[in-house]
Amino acid sequence: MKKFICIASLFISALAHAHSEVPLKPEHGGTIKEAAAGHQLEVTYSANALTLYIKDHDGNKLSSDGATAELIVQHNNANTKVQLKPSGSNALNIKGDFAHLSGAVMIVKYSLKGEKLEQARLSLK
């Protein structure tokens, strides 16, 4: 019994010190994924724009000022690279014809100002 109490205490202690776990909720109706670096990435698309929103692990917006992003769009047996530009707050985007991206796979390569290049892969709805 003492062994069980000791193990339970250690487990509860570890949970108390763990980083907060904010559920991934797309704020803009897009597809969201947490990158290995802990950033929450949300990709949205419309008939004329493709946008990447970046937040930290806790859901706080990260500035897109000085950030770079490249998306490799894998769709219909073709790969297309697009460069996104900062567009205010925590967003980077590009204008173009993106109406038919449902089901596409995106490889997101991004770098925040002063940070190293990160990447993540996600599938669009």
Q: What does this entry look like structurally?
A:
- The protein is mainly beta and 125 residues long.
- Helices cover 13% and strands 42% of the residues.
- It is built from one helix and eight strands.
- The protein has one helix at 2-17; strands at residues 31-34, 40-45, 49-55, 68-75, 78-86, 91-95, 105-111, 118-123.
- An eight-stranded antiparallel β-sheet has the order 1-2-3-6-5-4-7-8, with no helix packed on it.
- Strand 1 and strand 2 (40-45) form a beta hairpin.
- The chain is globular, with a radius of gyration of 18 Å.
Average pLDDT reading: 86
* First-last Cα distance: 50 Å
Silhouette = globular
- Biggest sheet architecture: 8 strands, antiparallel
Signal peptide: 1-18
Keywords: Signal
Task: Give me a quick take on this structure.
The chain is mainly beta and 125 residues long. The chain has one helix and eight strands. The protein is 13% helix and 42% strand.
